[in-house]
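Field reference: sequence -> structure
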Amino acid sequence: MASFKNKKFLAFFVSATCIGVLCGFPIGFFQAIRRILPHAFFQYNMYRISLQYSLSEINRSVLWATLTVWSITFAGAGIFQMIQRISKTNFGKLSSTWKRYPTMVLSLAKSTFIVWIFINVFWISVMLFSSPQTPNLIIISVDCLRKDHLSAYGYSRQTSPNIDTFSQDATLFEDVISQSCWTIPSVASLFTLLYPSTHLTRGSVDGFWEENILNPKLVTLAELLKNEGYQTAAFIANHSLIKEYHFDQGFDLYDMIDDSSKPLAENVNKKVFSWLKTHYKKPFFMYLHYMDPHAEYGAPIPYRNFFISDTKRMLTLDEFTAIKHVLPNTNIWDLNTYIDMYDSEIRYVDHYIGELLELVRRNGLFDNTIVVITADHGEAFLEHGFCEHGNALYREEIDIPLIVRFPNTQPFPTKVTHRIEQIDVIQSILEHMGYGYPYPVHGSSITVYENDTACFSEEPSTHHKFLPTISMTENNFKAIYFTPKKTITDLYDLTSDPLERTNLVREKAALAEQFRTRIKAWATARSADARQLGIDKRPAKLHIDKNHINTLKALGYVR
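Structure field:
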């Protein structure tokens, strides 16, 4: 009797498992197909990736199907026995069939388990001898990094030897426009692929701290990749990107490097290296925000005086007044000295970017990692009367570097010369990885770009009720629109005047009017996008502690 009961229990267990496995196979197969087909990166590693995806999905489906069938089977068996006992019914032929059930099930189990064991041995072999099934993503953003101060972009000084080396095996984008001229709205656009007039994270320095909050209704790049199974980590040296502003959305780790008001690149790297030691075996997204070229300039020794100009460019009183807060404790009247110190900061951070890239290589990650080197905005040196950034939408503040390296294959040409926006490149990378946002975003695939595609950037202003100044660049003309007065203030022909020195707004009034009409329509559409996403209302007033305000003062954000 006991032997029969044991066989009966074994029969229940094995039959439930077999049914679960048999159900899980087709479910997992169709799940795998559904996940694989949209992935563009599937093209360059087709067999390995499809195999890993398929087996992973099948095993997951088999597990859940088996657990479900176990629960239903044992619950049903319990109910069946309960009915038998209560009704004292023998169930005739059913009981007779039930006695033969263990033998029938055990014969079925043999073939089922042989197939499953074979598949899993094969799957484990694939996992052991191949890299992770999806590419990692590392975005390195350097605060205030001007494109035209990198030797990779033709600068006369060797400011960036490591970035130069990296660019030789990557795609260098020659003409990229940031979506804003300072950090908070620019990074919010990079994380959401929306323009500032839609995400409304505009960045305030005048106490309207709620204007700095990234709306939690929006899906960030980190959230999107985390939902796809990525580990996510951010290492932030800029204290304007604090957690209170919700920039940590989607990050498993959001590490604010708080050793000073302007943390050094070497301290950022220490945190990054520590994290990578324990997380490199699974797919990850890592965002790094270095701060070194940001004012106050003063790289550590021996980089501090790496570059010294042979000539001087003396400042006028007005110019000195505009620039002195960059180095408030000095009395330097030579513009070239400021530029020397800025370039030295770039050389310093380039060293630690090289150190990071070498670590990625040593850990065998380089052939399975998409690496992006870019900036949030540029830096002005009195080209149009301003210094630093966040002042205007001239080229020195919004033209940024962007270099992308893909593993194993390069879907973009080695050099992209036509003008694009930063969010377009991020969107193109996501398309290449096979992921997309759950709602329409403003970034476009660069594969469909043409030279005459319009590019936009915004300078949110706290002085004009956050009505932004907007730049539009198209057909080698650039217009700057001042929203409070609903007028075009600047118009430049970038073919003959790439440095934007000659304002043609009067000479080409008709063209300026065309730009005005189009920019107004564009701004109206972006506001409508915010309403459609349900983010047009700002959150409640946010109170920031004095320590954070003092840190922002040290960085020059609050005066």
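Note: The two ends are 88 Å apart (CA to CA).
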